[in-house]
Each structure stands twice: as C-alpha cells, then as structure tokens.
Amino acid sequence: MTATKIELRENAKRGGGQPKEWLQTLYTFAVPPNYLADGHESFGRLRVINEDRVTVGNGFGFHSHQEFEIFSYLVRGELKHQDSMDNVEILKRGDIQLTSAGTGIRHSEVCNGNEDVHFVQIWTLPWKGSLKPRYFTRHFTEGEKQDKWALLVAPVGSDGVTLEREGEGPAPVQSDVAFWATVLSPDRTISREMPSKEGERKAYLQVVQTSGFNHGEGKGAHVRVEIGGQSVEMREGDGAFVHASPREELRVTNLGSSTAEVLLFDVDLA
C-alpha cells in the first residue's frame, strides 16, 4: 500500500507578483529565469500552473510553443485567443481552451472587453512528441460545477472524450492528466475516489483566488482536504500535492462562509 500523504503548497511560496504593469501572476512550478520554485519543477505530467490577471487591452503577444498541451481555465472576464492555425476566439467564464502545441504553434492571449481577465493556464507534457497541433474549446455551466466535480479535460480515448474542435464533454488532452473543477458552497462536502489503476496515485489541488490577487498568506475561501486519515486546510491560492493508494476517497469540505472554487488534477493516470 502507498503511504498516504498530503503536502501543502502555500500561496506565499508561489512565485510571481507583478512582473509587468498590466500583469499579475502566480506560479506554482518553476518558470526560469523568473522563478526557480524551491525544487518544484513539475508534478508527474503537470509542468505549469500559472494564475494570471491581465488588464484591459493588454496581454501576451504572439509567441511560440512546442510539445506542450496548453489549456486555459477562465475564471472572470474575457480572453481573446488567436493562433497560427487561424483560430480566433473570445473565451469567457466557464470556457476551457486547449491547444496541443505538438510540432509548433504561435498564439496570442489578450484581455478583451471592459474588465480585467483572470484565468489559470496549465501545461502538461504529452505522452509522445511531434504530434500534429490541434485546438479545442469546451464550455461548462456553473450548474455543472456547483457542489460536484465536473471533468473538464481528460486523456484522448477516455469515456466521453471526442476530438471535435467544439463539443460536449471534456476536452481531449494527449497526456496522462485529468482536470476537474468545482464551485463549492459553504458547509458542503464533495468526494471522489482516486483512480483505480494499481500503484501510487497522485493528485494536485488548487484553490482559485476568486476574492482578489494576493501573494502573501492565503485568505478568502477556506477548505479542508482529507484522504486516508490525513488532512490539510487550504485558503485561496494554496495548493496541495496528494499521494495515495487506488480507490482511496478524497474529500473536500468548504469550511468558510464564501463559495470556494477548487481545481483538481489526477496525475500520471497510466
């Protein structure tokens, strides 16, 4: 049996801050040369989790990526995406946009509309290189996430995953990672079993900073994460690395008086 362990990744230990006048960002993993992350280079196939806020009319101009699976989770505001595959899209709250960079793409991400945009960008390592670049979007309502886990991204070949550019169900990722989200009401608890495949199971949780940018001690929403007799309490901006056995029950309880938006990643599903 795997020794169950939860390692808290406190918000104040994330990298980032305000590297540009128009950008507030927080890094979970190393982003050289800006942030070396005290040895937190990745977690399984997870390589980047950046929580970004961009002011109106500003953003990341055209730049290149290769070999990563890149997906953006919109928290608030609008993000205009353009890329070298001729995709142009305005992403809003509830949208997931996934780019399989493969052999190479160029894209830009700019704040659209009349309010700042807040989004979480995630990168995962694909299971093989030199894939054909692909682009996908999905939309999930608040009701689909309210007090339950909604599966937003899952490996190609998983149940309910299609290769349509826009479609129903989770977006397809060429990586052994699944991405879930919930909007959890006060005093509510939700649970989910760790994947059943034998061997150590890993998960990562992140509490989104919905109450505002903060690079210090976690504030705002307050949750407890429990599994296998272990538990940690988390605030907005805090993360947690979970190591457990197959089928162990992971429980998240909202201890505070405000809604908590929590992201969950199943890692190394193979």
Topology:
Layout: E1 5-9, E2 15-20, E3 23-27, E4 46-54, E5 59-65, E6 69-76, E7 78-83, E8 88-91, E9 95-100, E10 105-112, E11 117-124, E12 134-139, H1 142-145, E13 150-155, E14 171-173, E15 177-184, E16 189-193, E17 201-207, E18 219-227, E19 230-236, E20 239-244, E21 249-254, E22 260-267
Parallel strand pairs: 13-14
Antiparallel strand pairs: 1-20, 2-3, 3-4, 4-11, 5-10, 6-9, 6-11, 7-8, 7-10, 9-12, 13-15, 15-22, 16-21, 17-20, 17-22, 18-19, 18-21
In terms of per-residue confidence, which ranges show pLDDT below 50 for 5 or more consecutive residues? none
Gross morphology is globular
Mean pLDDT: 95
Rg result: 17 Å
| Count of separate DSSP helical elements | 1
Proportion of strand residues = over 45%
**Intertermini distance:** 18 Å
> Helices and strands, in N-to-C order?
EEEEEEEEEEEEHEEEEEEEEEE
Determine the fraction of residues in helical runs and give it as a percent range. under 10%
Instruction: Give the biggest sheet.
Output: 7 strands, mixed
Strand order, main sheet: write it out. Answer: 1-20-17-22-15-13-14
Count of DSSP strands: 22
Query: Which structural class best describes the helix and strand composition?
Result: mainly beta
